[in-house]
Amino acid sequence: MATMTGSEVREALSSAVDALRAAGVEDPRLDAELLLAEASGWSRAALVADPVAEVPPAAARSFGEMVRRRLRREPVAYMLGRKGFRGIELAVDSRVLIPRPETEMLVELALEVQPDRLLDVGTGSGAIALAIADELPGCGVTATDTSPGALAVARANAERLGLTDRVRFHEGTLPEGESFDLILANLPYVAERDWPTLQPEVTQWEPREALLAGPDGLDAYRAFIPECSRHLHRYAEQMTGALAVEVGEGQAASVASLMRDSGFADVEVRRDLAGIERAVFGRAGGGTS
Fold it and tell me: 80, 89 in Cβ contact below 8 A?
């Protein structure tokens, strides 16, 4: 890619878009605009509004370096150090997965159920737990993860967003001796056989342990769902618990069967905006929340 020192906005963007497209980047225009906005300190709207504006030399050099990093398929979110999720902005780095739009389905399920006490398992950056704490301020939220690094990121996000009084973090999976109205989980679900087909942004940069889950991608849920069921059923006389999990394409039927086999009733599958069966929801004992 040519050096862009002294170029206009449209020239800098055009050069970057061409290079990113040739490298196989999925959305080269969006990425180029985000990176130039970061390098210049201008908004994306300002870049579009004034395409003949001169990019200052220092900003052009910074932009060129960021584009070279993107050509190595480093995710934009890691480069910027942040990612939007619903109404909040999260700090992210290579210790956590980058929050995906489809994961918002679990937040939407929580808004439907309106739980008093909620557990987010595999919280990562804290996206689900913090979005729910932001949108359901009366809900007591507990978030767990087995990765100390991920929990450090999530705690820092909670502090920056002013949500430390609404979310409690715990290392592990299911806190011993506690009960919840709703448990949400976004556990690893990538099958080992599918790993080579994923984008380099995922395989080269995101934490492998947060993605892979055995030959068919279901190992984590095979271990988790029966334990989760026992955990909720222990409190069935006092409350009805519910469980919702995010799954990969083609996994919903198997995960729904795991839920039914573990005593969940009224199990249903929800599709994301792309029409993929993305979330599986079930109620313990078949009652209502």
Answer: no
DSSP conformation class of 17: H
In the DSSP assignment, the letter for residue 217 is S
pLDDT digits 0-9 by tens, 122-178: 999 999 999 999 999 999 999 999 999 999 999 999 999 999 999 999 999 999 888
List phi, psi (to 5°) of 76.
Answer: -60, -40
Place of tokens 């086999």: 261
Instruction: At 281, list the tokens.
Output: 């929801």
Give the max Cα distance, the chain. Answer: 70
Backbone angles phi, psi at 90, to 5 degrees: -110, 140
Question: Concatenated DSSP letters for 171-193?
Answer: ESSS-TT---SEEEE----B-GG
Determine the pLDDT at residue 235: 43
**Contact in structure between 66 and 38 (CB atoms under 8 Å):** yes
Q: Which of 258, 245, 134, 261 is nearest to 182 (CA)?
A: 245
Decide: residue 209, CB within 10 A, 0-12 exposed, 13-18 middle, 19+ buried.
exposed
Tell me the per-residue pLDDT of 9-39, one tens digit each, with 9 for 90 and over.
Answer: 999 999 999 999 999 999 999 999 999 999 9
